[in-house]
Amino acid sequence: QVLLVESGGGLVQAGGSLRLSCGASGIFFSVYTMAWYRQAPGKQRELVASINNGGSTDYADSVQGRFIISRDNAKESVYLQMSSLKPEDTAIYYCNANYQAYDYWGQGTQVTVSS
Description:
With about 120 residues, the protein is mostly beta strands.
């Protein structure tokens, strides 16, 4: 059974920081591209950041320079360090694992940024 479990969400003031974690099980973690998506109320789910199996990263323009994605293959985990948070970062954040035809999602963790 594949499980992706996110943690680290919460309520933070604008300008603050949070670190999200996603632990994976049931997959050959090191080959997967891992990503963080988010979905705000009334909006479509959007890609926030991704990191491939070689460690190359990609970011949405809206978070470039503020968020950092990283992975630890030994711990089968991916992280999202979020800094300089803005109220518009408020959303449910989802962890995603993708490899060829295989695509898995976590249950999401709420991030709320107050102004």
